[in-house]
Amino acid sequence: MATLADVARHAGVAASTVSYVLSGKRSVSEATRRRVQRSIELLNYHPHAGARALASSRANVLALIVPLRGDLYVPVMMQIAIGVVTTARQFGYDVLLLTNDEGSDGIRRVASSSRADAIILTDIGMEDGRIDAVRKAGIDAVLIGVPADPAGLDCVDLDFAEAGRLCVEHLTRLGHRTVAFIGEAEGIYRRHVGFAERTLRGIRAAAAARGVDLVHRPCEGSYEAAAGVLARILEERPHTTALIVQNEAIIPPLMSLLRMAGRTVPEHVSIVALCPDQLAEQTSPRLTSVNMPAQELGTRAVDLLMRRMNDGDSGEVVLIPPGLTVRGSTAQAPGTEEQPVSAL
What we know:
By secondary structure, the protein is α/β, with parallel strands linked by helices. It has helices spanning 4-11, 15-23, 30-43, 49-56, 74-90, 103-113, 129-137, 160-173, 186-190, 194-209, 223-236, 251-260, 277-280, 294-311; strands spanning 61-66, 94-99, 118-121, 140-144, 155-158, 178-182, 213-217, 242-245, 270-275, 288-291, 317-320, 324-325. The protein has three domains: 1-57, 434 Repressor (Amino-terminal Domain), CATH 1.10.260.40; 59-158 and 294-320, Rossmann fold (3-Layer(aba) Sandwich); 160-293, Rossmann fold (3-Layer(aba) Sandwich). It is 46% helix and 16% strand. It starts with a helix and ends in a 19-residue tail after the last strand.
């Protein structure tokens, strides 16, 4: 027997749009209404009277699903949550916080109990099992992150592949040709989390195109892990002149470890980081960086979700263009001729 979610997929609209067509609670364009009604007829969908009444009611609550893992940088997740909560309140919605520990069961529980009208998912994997649970539950959702196949999904994220490219191009313009990328914790790559995978792809592609000798080293977010990774890089590749760093948690210890190793920044080694501007401004020297717009991601996710719920359209992927800010942690590579350098 066809479900409301089946009708939504067949018509290419959000589940809430099917509810609006059935209940008449909100206006829907004539073209969309005809498309939904056609799908209802073709699938022989017969909503139960009680289910129709339930579909037309609203809890005025959005569920935000966030990870509670030690390998993710908590301040960034908090900024995303702040963006979601403050923007949701502007639309008259409260926010229910769930953790990834509940997985697909948590999504089904929220959808079946009508505790929330829609869901915002974070920590998106390239192949994420929660996405199928959202589709089957027939609840509106927006992803902060982009899976391998985003067809029919609403997603928002920083363009991490482009961010990686900007880092490499900035360093190569300064003459750096031996670069190490200190990335996220190993577990993030094992889970194939989208932002980490796309950053790595962007860096590798740009390095290959510009003839950069690149090595990638995952790193846990501790002083000991940073010390071990840096020691390995300097032992195996003593001529490394630049580092690209994505794991925000190791930035403060890394700066200290470089000083202890006699590597002055930026005279001996340049550093580019992918991190919030606030963190980049706190180091000495201040870091050349690509900003992580965490709060904007939360805001844009709610805006996208409101459009999906109100207009019925689905399948929009929003990638925020990255920008690189040049500060004091990058300089001309030792022994190379100086060339004009500008912020990208």
